[in-house]
Amino acid sequence: MKQSLGARTIIVPTPVWVIATYDEAGRPNAMTASWAGMCCSRPPCVGVSLRKATYTYGCLLTRQAFTVNVPAASQVAEADFLGIASGRDTDKFAAAHLTAVRSSLVDAPYVAEFPLHLECRLLHTVEIGLHTQFIGEILDVKASPEVLTAAGLPDPQRVAPILYAPEVRRYYALGEELGQAKMVGLRLRPVPETT
Amino acid sequence: MKQSLGARTIIVPTPVWVIATYDEAGRPNAMTASWAGMCCSRPPCVGVSLRKATYTYGCLLTRQAFTVNVPAASQVAEADFLGIASGRDTDKFAAAHLTAVRSSLVDAPYVAEFPLHLECRLLHTVEIGLHTQFIGEILDVKASPEVLTAAGLPDPQRVAPILYAPEVRRYYALGEELGQAKMVGLRLRPVPETT
User: Could you tell me if residue B3 is inside a domain?
Assistant: First the structure.
């Protein structure tokens, strides 16, 4: 028998991604978001939901662009700080000793110290309620060379992303590997009947 | 210097959530999705992107409802299988030895063996490209009593969700706790100037 917990945003996991933008004056800003996820393969798109009250909301609408930056577990204090302070009254890059690098593809900066970045142009804006969802087309993914495997893809354990559990408000590291997709479930396929 | 990887869906982590629906004939179906994330706090909403080619796509549009089910790390084979087979030609619940329980709130089943469920009614449909995003309003969250803490919230480490890294196509467990949100970053707040 399952227990009812009500109409709440209880789920695990959500990502801890840092959304970076320029404001109207050209100052870089960054905020942490967890209401986010990939949402399309072609064109490659990521969706990020923001409250209108955030400083990033206006920046993103003005510039029609943003980057999604994946901080590493060792950078959890920086990631958390970027979700506490507001760009309205704080230079968050300076306070967190982070470097804003201008994207050559979109009108937004990325966070140099973080290992993985998605450079996005705004494609759709979806009004949902307290949050507005911004769907960005990923024009390029950039990564620190030290997180790449020999095959040239980011190794998830070297990126070492942060996971978040809302409601209990706790951060977690990525754990052990559980197996290869489209492989570990093959044994459950029904055996074809012989005729 | 960052390395460019191209316009691709490279990110870590994405969730491994199982979307359950009834088809037109009333048969339960379930598929694994990773292009998904929470997208609004009020009303509480979750977004899930599906390709039109999936069997779930039609079920969800017909029934205007779905559940999001969080499988545990010990259920990675079942979760993977639900992403390999199609409900068009396979009774996936039977093949994976899973039980469909009818939601009392929405016209969709949930997967009894999984520890956490979100019961959703379809609120918005967003055409993006290869994927269509379905935004569901969460009408209730249900959990297995054994994953709940004394405070009545799911303990992320007892739920033991599965994370996914697309492109390298690997599953991961949730790792160690890294700290409390709105706490671990406080030390980076600029010190107010004394006057």
Answer: no
- Give the other-Cβ count within 10 Å of A52's Cβ: 11
In tens, the pLDDT along B56-78 reads 999 999 999 999 999 999 999 99
> Which B positions 91-130 lie with beta carbon below 8 A of chain A?
95-96, 110, 112, 116-118, 123-124, 126, 128-130
Pairwise CB contact (< 8 Å): A185 & B81: yes
CA distance B172 to B150: 27
Q: What is the pLDDT of residues A94-117, one digit of tens each?
A: 999 999 999 999 999 999 999 999
Task: With CB atoms and an 8 Å threshold, state whether A141 touches B90.
Answer: no
Q: Is residue B39 part of a domain?
A: yes
Q: Which residues pair with B135 in a beta bridge?
A: B47, B124
Contact between A29 and A81 (Cβ < 8 Å) = no
Half-sphere exposure in the Cβ direction for A8 (13 Å, CA): 17
Q: A146 lies in which domain range?
A: 14-173
CB-nearest to B37 from A14, A159, A161 is A14
pLDDT for A192 equals: 72
Q: Which tokens hold the place of B98?
A: 């899973």
Report the number of distinct structural domains present in chain B.
1
The encoded tokens of residue A172 equal 């977690």
Assigned domain for A5 exists: no
Residue in the block written with tokens 């967890």:
A34
Predicted pLDDT at B195? 60
Tell me if chain B has a CB within 8 Å of the CB of A36: yes
Q: pLDDT, tens digit, for every residue of A142-181?
A: 999 999 999 999 999 999 999 999 999 999 999 999 999 9
Q: What is the pLDDT of residues B89-98, one digit of tens each?
A: 999 999 999 9
Contacts of A46 in chain B (CB under 8 A): 11
Q: Tell me which DSSP letter residue A55 carries.
A: H
pTM of the shown model? 0.96
Alpha-carbon distance of A182 to A108, in angstroms, equals 36
Interval B12-48: pLDDT, tens:
999 999 999 999 999 999 999 999 999 999 999 999 9
Q: Which two structure tokens, joined as six digits, stand for A120?
A: 């996005």
Is A94 inside a domain boundary?
A: yes
- CATH number assigned to the domain comprising residue A125: 2.30.110.10
What are the backbone dihedrals phi and psi of residue B181, each rounded to the nearest 5 degrees, phi first? -65, 150
